[in-house]
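I hope you will forgive my troubling you with a question about protein structure. You will find the record immediately after this paragraph.
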Amino acid sequence: MKVDDYSTSKRNDENSCKVGSRMSRIRCMIRGLELKTFIIGFVIIPAIVTGIYLHGQKVTYFLRPLWQSPPKPFIHMPHYYNTNVTMASLCNLHGWKLRDYPRRVYDAVLFSNEVDMLTIRWKELYPYITQFVLLESNSTFTSIPKKLNFAINREKFEFIKSRLTYGTIGGRFKSGENPFIEEAYQRVALDHLLRIAGIEDDDLLIMSDVDEIPSAHTIDLLRWCDGPPPIVHLNLNNYLYSFEFNLDHKSWRASVHQYQKGTTRYVHYRQSDYLLADSGWHCSFCFRTISDFVFKMKAYSHTDRVRFSHYLDPKRIQKVICSGADLYDMLPEEYTFRELIGKMGPIPHSYSAVHLPSYLLKNADKYRYLLPGNCIREDG
C-alpha cells in the first residue's frame, strides 16, 4: 500500500469513529489501546487487587520479621520433678528452700463456655487450691449476649463448692468497641472478686485463661518453696483443637504471683522475665462441638480474624480440625523467617498421650475427643 493510500485509510477510520454509534466508538478506543496497556489495566491490576484482598494478611505476616522485632527473651528456669523425689530435694534442685508450711493458692479465671476444660483444670489443681475464683459475664468480649454457662452447669462442680467464690458481671454492650476494652473491664472486676474471696499478701495467685492449665506438681512446688521470683510465667505445652496437635512449647501468658495488695493486677500479658519450663498445658480451641468453635471465633478478642463468612462453615471447621490447619487461614506469628517457614502448613499429628492431665486420662471415654485419633466433633 502506498503512503498516500495508508494516510487516506487512517483518516477514513478516524472519521468513521467520530460519526459511528457509541459501540463503534468504544471499539475504536479499544483498538487505539496498546495490547500491553490493556493487559495491565484489565488483567494484572485487578488480579493484584484481588490477591491483596484475599491474601494481604498472609503477606503481612510473612513479612513480619522485617517490620517487627522479637520481644525480649525470657530468663528460662529449669524445672525438676519426679514423683519419687521429696519436696525438700525438689526445692533444693531449683536453688530454693523448703518452707515450714505451704502458701495459700488462689486460682482465678474468666469464664465463657469451656465447661470441659474448666473441669479438667479444677480436677488437676484441686488438691492445692485454697479458693477457686470464677467470674462470668452475660456478654462476650465482642459484646454478643451470652448465657451464664457456669451457672447453668454449676451442678457439675459440686466437688469445689466449699472453696468457690463465684461472681457475675453485666456486659456493657458497646457495639463496635475494641474487644480488648471489654476484656480489660472484666479483668478489673476479677480483681475485686479476688478481694471478696479473701486473698492476702504473699498468697499465690494463678493468672491464666481456663484453657491454660498449670500442672498440679508445678503449683505444689511453688507453694512449698521459698525463693522463686515474685512473678513467674509458666511455659506450657501448646496444643490446638486437642492433645493430638502439639503446636509448640511456647505458650507463656499463664503466670503465678506472690500477691501484693495495691500492686498485683489481674492481666494477661507479660509481667516478668522469668519463665518456668514445662509447667502444664495450653489447649486452645479444644471444644467438643462445632457450634462451640463457631461461638468462640465470633466471641473472643481476635474476632477480626474472621475475614470471610465461609470461615464459620461447619464443614470447613471440621476439615480444619482433622487436618491440623489454621481456622483463620493465617500464617504462623513468628519473628524470624526460619521459624515462620518451619511452622507453615498443618500441625503434624502426634500419637502420644503421655504426661497429660490425670483426670483426662482417668476419664478417657468421656473426653475421647481430646485424645489422639478422635478429631470428629459433634454438631452441637
Q: What stands out?
A: The first helix runs from residue 3 to 19. The chain has two domains: 3-67, 75-370.
